[in-house]
Design brief:
It contains 7 helices and 9 strands; from the N terminus they run H-H-E-H-H-E-E-H-E-E-E-E-H-E-E-H. It is an alpha+beta fold and 210 residues long. It has a single domain, classed as C8orf32 fold, CATH 3.10.620. The strands form 2 sheets. The protein has a 7-stranded antiparallel β-sheet. It has a two-stranded parallel sheet with strand order 2-3.
């Protein structure tokens, strides 16, 4: 039994090592213009993805692929229909998952009982299913005032960037939500498997659209 556990840990660490190497290569291999855009968005340097996210991608590979890519890099407009979609998904997921922080650290889509990680990946999954591009839906690890690590979903639009958080019934702009958290790391918009550390975005916490 112990041998099997050791093998699982070794395989997981090997996958992590490969992914962070690829992440660094992808990040530093971007043309100068893209790296400048990432810097304006507050992305600092490549970071290891949370181990829970690595295992999540092995279990749900479709949710970790680049989806609805737009080669013209046009921003997603926050229309009345999209705003209603965001609110609908936010309300339904907050309602359907029973909050329990004592559950396993495994990240799962739509469990009956779950914690912040399950809320965030479920909301992202539901929005992907509705046609939102993966580059607009970024998981972010933050630290809340109590000192606990927490996962939220950042939704980037051409008008404003928004935070969907199971600790709040309302969707907030990142300008409002940013000061309440200590931001740790976030998915890169170019590839959801790659993460970066996050510094304070410009313009009082409002993430500029690229």
């Amino acid at each position: 039994m112990r041998q099997a556990a050791k093998i699982l840990v070794w395989v997981t660490m090997a996958v992590l090592a490969c992914w962070v190497s690829a992440s660094q290569a992808a990040f530093f291999g971007y043309p100068g213009a893209i790296k400048l855009q990432l810097a304006k968005l507050g992305f600092d340097r490549p970071a290891l993805p949370p181990i829970g996210h690595t295992l999540f991608c092995l279990r749900y590979p479709q949710d970790c692929r680049i989806q609805a890519i737009d080669f013209r890099r046009r921003n997603v407009a926050l229309t009345a229909q999209r705003w209603e979609e965001l609110n609908l998904v936010n309300r339904e997921v907050n309602r359907d998952i029973i909050a329990d922080t004592s559950v396993t650290d495994e990240w799962m889509i739509a469990p009956q009982v779950g914690d912040c990680k399950d809320y965030a990946v479920t909301k992202r999954h539901e929005l992907l299913a509705r046609g939102w591009p993966s580059r607009t839906l970024l998981l972010a690890e933050v630290v809340v005032p109590s000192g606990e690590h927490h996962l939220v979903l950042v939704v980037r639009t051409s008008e404003v960037d928004l935070v969907l958080d199971n600790l709040s019934a309302d969707i907030r702009s990142i300008a409002v939500a940013y000061p309440r958290y200590q931001w740790v790391r976030m998915e890169l918009p170019q590839n959801p498997k790659f993460w970066s550390t996050v510094s304070a975005p410009r313009a009082h916490g409002a993430m500029a659209a690229s």
